[in-house]
């Protein structure tokens, strides 16, 4: 038998095994209709981003100290897995910041006081004194960033110079002297910084402290002036980002209006929609479609504000850990969290989010890497697969079937066709998904969660936009079974019998949602003895067959013969 035939046979056995993971699982059929005529949104090139935080080893939540030596001041930058994990993205965007960033001084010449680390003090905001970033450590970090190819966004201390106001907020202009010295030193050393972000969680009601939008706008403009002045002779200047806080429509609108059209490059907001890490119902929330859909309004509202105000500012999620206070061990660092994480990536992309920064790359109970061993947690592999398979153009996708399946489609990355992401939140139903081309209703994108009914005649590979006659020759078996494909219309391109697609099935080891071992097509993912990141290899599946989505599993399907005009 030819090698290709053996691989296909292997894939059939593998998928059969995946579907037997949960004996007695019910089976259902469904349709994912992808409108390939035009993109409904676009992400940035390097959409997936992760954070590094400042927390010292004695940062504890609910009696557990989950940060270890993962903070920016003491992370082991010589660890091979850490280097390879960042390098695998080529590039990975890293946002440096967090709660303590507004208490960080920089050890530049202007400081005129000792550059000392954070010290635990429960009477202080966030439980620590001010800390300091020595230039020696900044040099070490930048050497690592250069070696790993990371793109860096650095969160600046926005609290310098503030005074308390009668309404309880902090006021007075930002004292940018120390920050400007760091930016100047960084440029002098030739370190490439992708962006400088002002402040952490000081917007709206604030966390720990708050600053009014009017004052914040003036401070953003001051930062923009500093960055432009220091980089006046360089063609590509670092971005200016703000406010790195929780979405507040009025506050965000005022900041946008007072910095438009181009004084603020990126508006960043944070997401911890699952509540505190100690919540014992986190898994139930993650598996609940209506909880996941609760974020739609924030993404949609922010998109609306940016569109209606006539600004060039774009939206990023600047920090998202799902459950605050360092997450929850064996939930936010286990397989089950990939349901939340990948759904967030898919949903935010539909609303023109350009980058999504996951809290954290390492540290806490929500790291992509294990805090002590540096071994990748399941979400690391989910992030890497997204980065490698999902292109920047987002396609409207409508799912007919159970609301326990989440479906997102993008143009494929560096490849013809599309990539479809399917997330099965059901533990007892396997779903066979037929992919069709579908012309979306007038008015653009379908709202998330809209379920479309199909008659048998509509479950087809169709070209509702075409005016040309049917392309009669060479249509593949899938098209013969469900209708006819058209050569240049949205839908499946004419292909010979035997066409295949690439599938990546993600499941937890032993079927345990709390497992920290992810299986890709039935095989456990683990780093090599040399700290290398494993190859992420697809199975080839007969393109005429529906996509078999096992209970509690995630599937990326790269469908190269799906012709989407939006992708060409």
Automatic annotation (TrEMBL):
InterPro entries per the UniProt record, alphabetical: GH, Glyco_hydro_79
Source domain of life: Eukaryota
Sample GO molecular function, one term: beta-glucuronidase activity
This protein's UniProt keywords: Glycoprotein, Hydrolase, Lysosome, Membrane, Secreted, Signal
Pfam families: Glyco_hydro_79n
Annotated signal sequence range: 1-26
Example of a GO cellular component annotation carried by this entry: extracellular region
Compartments (UniProt record): Lysosome membrane; Secreted
Membrane protein topology class: Peripheral membrane protein
Similarity-based family: Belongs to the glycosyl hydrolase 79 family.
Function of the protein: Endoglycosidase which is a cell surface and extracellular matrix-degrading enzyme. Cleaves heparan sulfate proteoglycans (HSPGs) into heparan sulfate side chains and core proteoglycans.
Name recorded for this polypeptide: Heparanase-like protein 3
Source organism per UniProt: Panicum virgatum (Blackwell switchgrass)
């Amino acid at each position: 038998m030819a090698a290709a035939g053996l691989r296909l046979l292997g894939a059939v056995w593998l998928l059969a095994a995946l579907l037997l993971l949960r004996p007695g699982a019910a089976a259902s059929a469904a349709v994912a209709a992808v409108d390939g005529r035009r993109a409904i949104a676009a992400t940035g090139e390097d959409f997936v981003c992760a954070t590094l935080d400042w927390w010292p080893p004695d940062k504890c939540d609910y009696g557990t100290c989950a940060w270890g030596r993962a903070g920016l001041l003491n992370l082991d930058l010589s660890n091979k897995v850490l280097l390879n994990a960042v390098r695998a993205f080529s590039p990975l965007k890293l946002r440096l910041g967090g709660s303590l960033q507004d208490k960080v001084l920089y050890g530049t010449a202007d400081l005129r006081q000792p550059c000392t680390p954070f010290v635990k003090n429960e009477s202080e905001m966030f439980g620590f004194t001010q800390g300091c970033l020595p230039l020696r450590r900044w040099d070490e970090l930048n050497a690592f960033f250069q070696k790993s190819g990371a793109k860096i966004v650095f969160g600046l201390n926005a609290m310098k110079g503030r005074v308390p106001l009668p309404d309880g907020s902090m006021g007075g202009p930002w004292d940018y002297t120390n920050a400007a010295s760091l930016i100047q030193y960084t440029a002098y050393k030739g370190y490439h910084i992708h962006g400088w972000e002002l402040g952490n969680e000081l917007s709206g009601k604030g966390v720990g402290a708050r600053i009014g939008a009017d004052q914040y706008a003036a401070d953003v403009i001051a930062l923009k002036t500093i960055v432009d002045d220091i980089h006046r002779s360089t063609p590509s200047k670092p971005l200016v980002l703000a406010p790195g806080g929780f979405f507040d429509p009025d506050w965000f609108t005022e900041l946008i209006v007072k910095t438009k059209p181009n004084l603020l490059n990126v508006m960043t907001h944070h997401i911890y929609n699952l509540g505190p890490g100690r919540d014992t119902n986190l898994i139930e929330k993650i598996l609940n479609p209506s909880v996941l859909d609760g974020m739609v309004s924030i993404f949609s509202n922010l998109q609306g504000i940016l569109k209606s105000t006539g600004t060039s500012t774009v939206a990023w999620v600047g920090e998202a850990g799902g459950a605050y206070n360092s997450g929850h061990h064996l939930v936010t660092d286990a397989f089950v969290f990939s349901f939340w994480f990948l759904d967030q990536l898919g949903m935010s992309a539909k609303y023109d989010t350009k980058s999504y920064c996951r809290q954290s790359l390492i540290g806490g109970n929500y790291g992509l890497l294990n805090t002590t061993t540096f071994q990748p947690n399941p979400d690391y592999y989910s992030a890497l697969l997204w980065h490698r398979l999902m292109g920047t153009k987002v396609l409207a996708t409508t799912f007919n079937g159970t609301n326990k399946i989440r479906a997102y489609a993008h143009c494929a990355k560096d490849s013809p066709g599309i990539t479809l992401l399917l997330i099965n939140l059901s533990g007892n139903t396997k779903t066979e998904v037929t992919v069709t081309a579908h012309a979306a209703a007038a008015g653009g994108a379908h709202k998330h969660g809209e379920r479309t009914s199909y008659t048998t005649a509509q479950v087809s590979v169709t070209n509702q936009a075409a005016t040309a006659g049917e392309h009669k020759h060479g249509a593949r078996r899938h098209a013969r079974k469900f209708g006819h494909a058209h050569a240049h219309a949205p839908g499946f391109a004419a292909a010979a019998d035997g066409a295949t697609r690439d599938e990546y099935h993600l499941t937890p080891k032993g079927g345990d949602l709390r497992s920290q071992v992810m299986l890709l097509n039935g095989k456990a993912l683990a780093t090599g003895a040399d700290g290398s990141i494993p190859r992420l290899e697809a199975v080839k599946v007969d393109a005429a067959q529906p996509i078999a989505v096992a209970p509690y599993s995630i599937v990326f399907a790269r469908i190269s013969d799906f012709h989407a005009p939006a992708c060409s």
